[in-house]
Amino acid sequence: MSAILNIRDITVRFGGVVAVDNVNFDVPDGQLLGLIGPNGAGKTTVMRAITGIVSPEKGEIRLNGAPLHHLPTHQRVRAGLGLSQQLVRPFRSMSLVENVRFTAGYAKTRGPLGALVALDRSAEARRALELLERVGIAAQADARPDEVPLGVLKRLEVARALALDPTVLLLDEPLAGLNSEEAATLADTIRALNGEGFTILLIEHNLGEVMRICDRLVVLDNGRLIGEGAPRDVMAEPTVRAAYLGTEASDAAA
Amino acid sequence: MEGLLNVYQISLLTTLAVAVIMALSLNLITGFCGQISLGHAAFQGIGAYMAEILTKQAGFDFASATLIAVLFSAGIGFLVGLASLRVREDFLAITTMGVAFLFVGFVNQQPRLGAEEGIANIPDPGLGATGYMVMALVLALLVALFSVYVRRTWLGAAFGSIADDEDTARIVGIDVARFKLAAFVMGTGLAGLAGSIYAHQVKIIQATDFGFIPSITVLSIVVFGGIGSIVGVIFAAVLLTMLPLWFQFIGDYKLLFYGGLLFLMMRFAPQGLAGLIRSGLDAMRRDKRNDARVGDAA
Fold it and tell me: Which residues of B touch A119 (CB under 8 A)?
């Protein structure tokens, strides 16, 4: 499998604090890669460096070989990144299906002039319904974001990311805040999407589900990459165990 | 039509048409795209002075002067927008407030623009009072239809996504700065149109006609009507332009009235009149549904 997304020597510093320290990994084509680590390990910062919300001090990010790290967020998205955010951010003035329909019209919203002469929404509307069905929330298509539970909004984030026809799907803690049943169903959906050929980079705290669905794991701790490989092998590594047990111990103390 | 309307009514309807164009032009920026401008009247002023220079000082006809005035206002809008829209979400409010004061300060220092005394004897476009009123009303209607059209396009949808949540708009691939700039250029260009119509109607203009108070007035109209609602904003433009004519004290305390209105609407009814009516209708529909259910139970 050839790598589709390359993260090379990424370092992110906030003031004096090094949040991400020289991190390197690749996301191969068609893989479901889990990016894990204890709280504060730098996972979300890596994700934000990929999407361009934070600027790395050094390093390179390439998608299909083309450098992304000089582009603003919207151009990275148009280059092929589809992001589902950790904290759900639906467009609150739009219904669920409108959220996805608007996103699916990305070819028509490239620039203001093209958008001014584009009226037809039927293809996007069909696609939006398909995608809502795909993530299992078609029944709530016409509901407003304020009227549905978090589990539905988490799925909406995924459907909206899919509407961009992304080369790589970036999922930032899609299971956070869901009960175990909801988490398992959404994890199944993610696994199935990967089965359909989507390359996915998954950040997730829910280790059980990550171990169950991911092909490979990259483990961060304190901004450094401390382990990489097949889920069971990685979790057996002493450094990884120490990072997790250490956090659990300090959590227990707190 | 002269038989139907007296001179006062003709002039009033022309004034209302200008007010509607102004309000709808700001509605493109504030209502559709969620960007606050505190200096919108300055762009009306830029259009008014530009058109005046062309018709009175350079001998252009009204139509070409107006077209150039629209493009010029839009051009200045482009520069102001370029300087402020890329920076931060709330930066435009500050910059446009600066533009409001800068405009008055600049014009008042220019003898060529009549300085503080303003400019009188702006040439008559030669349509007659009634013809001019009809033209103004038709243009107001066209601006309203344009607003309805924009709302239905993907451009309107993109504006709406930005008004809703800029960060999320970026995540779904929207070039937020460019779309905001487009809204600002369209809005400021149409304000220039209102400026040219206004200048050739009243035929005497002063910088303060386009200062901070008129800017707050048009913003309060948009907020009162219901940010984004085309019908609501037209209604508010008509009502709030008539009120000072009916009640002298409102004219005397304009800033207090419009400022107070702006504050009260933002505090208690941020969706404006249109929002109040919408939630009223929703409540009625809910009641009906409940009544039906009670009926079923019985």
Answer: 152-154
